Amino acid sequence: MRPIELSPRLRSVAELVPKGAVLADIGTDHAFLPVWLLQRGVIERAVAADLREGPLSKARANAEKYGLQNQMSFRLCDGLSGIIPEEADTIAIAGMGGETIAVILANAPWTKEGKHRLLLQPMTSLYDLRAFLSGNGYIIRMEHINREDRRLYVTMEVEAGKCVPYSEGEKWAGRQWRGMESPLRADYLEEMLFRARRALEGLERSVRTEDVPRRELLRTIVPQVEAMREEWNTWQR
Length: 237
Fold this sequence. Notes:
With 237 residues, the protein is of the alpha/beta class. It has eight helices and seven strands, in the order αβαβαββαβαββααα. It folds into two domains: 159 residues, Rossmann fold; 51 residues. α1 crosses α2 and α4 runs parallel beside α5. It starts with 7 loop residues before the first helix and ends with a helix.
């Protein structure tokens, strides 16, 4: 039977899973990620979890289709609520918003004990997720930027530990350092700067009192991301 193929977005997560890992795939949907990894012998076994019975049924069907049902278990649960810490050493959470990922981790404080590798791929609210991680006992070791069609995706390698506080600009666009390997970093900075400027322009026209905190935040973020872009460009020369 022909092996399953992953989209570039999910492939970017799969490539960060270490050989011999035991994976918990949260929000597994069709279980494409664990099936792909098991077919290639990257992982030993996997727990596939989803909040809804429909996707989990499709995950079970895919496991049976490829003869992997003995290497996978399935959980109908909200986030990590149905996962025992000892069941996995690597946790993948992809395909949902950053705020949702933050809630999942907040409800599973054992993820801060230093025994698990977290691979997080938020679709939205990256600022909120970075703010949560950096302020709650996690370290973002690396952010991998990948492109699928015209969209850029960020996959974060995260582990427990004390983090140097992030600036507002870093929460918006991620941390960078000299010598960092990230071919799409310049494109990502441009995109994030464009989004910040556009959001600020809209808020500058607002007369609503409730928009003031967001406007002041963006007034801080924009020059910081501009400085990050210039710094990155200087490093590439």
